[in-house]
Amino acid sequence: MGASYGRGPLHLAAAVDLPDCPGAEPYVELVRLAERGGLDFVTLDDSFARPGPDALAVLARAAPATRRIGLVPTVTTTHTEPFRVQAAVATLDWISRGRAGWRIDVSAGEDEARLFGRRTAAPVRELWQEAGEVAEVAAKLWDSWEDGAEIRDLPTGRFLDRDKLHHVDYTGTAFSVRGPSTVPRPPQGHPVRLVDATERQARTVAARYADVALVRAATPAQATAVRDELHARAAESGRDPDTLRVLVSLLVDLGDGEHAAEPGHGGGGPRATGRGPLYRGGPVDLAELVAGWHADGVTDGFHLVPVEPRRDLERLVNGTVALLQHRGLFRTFYPGSTLREHLRLARPANQYAVTTGNTVTGRNVMTGGTS
User: Fold this and answer.
1) What SS3 class is residue 48?
2) For the whole model, what pTM was predicted?
3) Other CB atoms within 10 Å distance of the CB of residue 295
4) Dihedral of the CA atoms 101, 193, 182, 116 (nearest 10)?
5) Is 278 left (phi over 0), alpha (psi -120 to 50) or beta?
6) Would you place residue 50 in the very low, low, confident or very high pLDDT band (cuts 50, 70, 90)?
7) From CA 171, how far away is CA 331, in angstroms rounded?
């Protein structure tokens, strides 16, 4: 395990987005490459606004082709059913044996609304309020099966412990869910939830529900300001701020090595662009930036988005990550098997389980099915 700097171990993640690529195999190749570098997780974006494969389905395909790396698809909470969203994410956690995450996002475009027969899109503030409610009910549904609820004893016909299944009976502003889920509690308890908190409307959801928040920031001061705000909001909502990992998200262009550095790039740091903060330079200068910002306590790590996916991810893994590992700043192997373990996040306790000492109460057994 690499040494701890800044506020804790350095966390690294990468996007594996491939514009105009309909097949799954190229994505699987990138995920395998990221895993070779020991990255905590990969993200795959998704949107109703553009064509492309379903991110959750693609990463479900990558799950059996990989062993340790976390898999985090974007799944919007707008125009989707909360019950189906949580079940799909829970299924990915089972398929990957505890490596699933969920990048929570909203769909604010008018074109996206029209796809579902809605004439106008709701205001962004309302969409993020709904996203928070979906995040909350998802956690309740993941907990609606207690650990050990499945008995599956064929000789006796015992299948489920009825007292370990729970109705969530949740009513939000735009939906209600009774539960329980159709999927048993995921291996991680709750798959890791991630929110891009760059825009102010998303920060309440990030502070209350996210395990990982992304911040697109071109300077340490920008990143620090948002991180401090998120930690303060987390504390106000009753959370321990140390359970929220905040990663700086940067576009990276490693095309021409160290000679590509321009004023404001390379060793000088990222530059603001229309697509977000961009680092352009070489793998060595990028390693210096990552190490410096982390050691100064600016961030828990970085989420890096390659401008040219295949080229830049390979140079990131073989150059930047290898140098950080050589210097003892990033791990050389996965010490655990789940995404929560990579991020040093505890497995959440089940909110419905009633315990006495180390014993969970309730042992009524049901047979045949869930109803």
Assistant:
1) coil
2) 0.91
3) 13
4) -100
5) beta
6) confident
7) 44
CB 245 within 8 A of CB 70: no
The DSSP call for residue 348 is P
Q: Do the Cβ atoms of 198 and 226 come closer than 8 Å?
A: yes
Distance separating alpha carbons of residues 217 and 294, to the nearest angstrom: 14
- Write down the residue that tokens 């905590």 correspond to: 40
DSSP-derived secondary structure letter, 145: B
The predicted pLDDT at position 358 comes to: 45
Contact 298, 10 (CB under 8 A): no
Q: Quick one: average pLDDT of 4-30? A: 88
Answer positive or negative: Cα dihedral of 345, 347, 348, 354: negative
- Over range 87-110, report the average pLDDT: 96
Q: Cis omega (within 30 of 0) on the bond before 309? A: no
Please state, in angstroms and rounded to a whole number, the distance separating the CA atoms of residues 36 and 31.
Answer: 9
Smallest Cα–Cα separation from 186: which of 96, 73, 102, 93? 93
Residue 211: per-residue pLDDT? 98
Q: Is 42 within 8 Å of 12 (Cβ atoms)? A: no
Q: What are the structure tokens assigned to 171, written together?
A: 């009513």
Helix (H) or strand (E) holding 72: strand 70-76
Sign of CA pseudo-dihedral 136, 137, 141, 144: positive
Chain-centre distance of CA 318, in angstroms?
24
The two structure tokens encoding residue 228:
């401090």
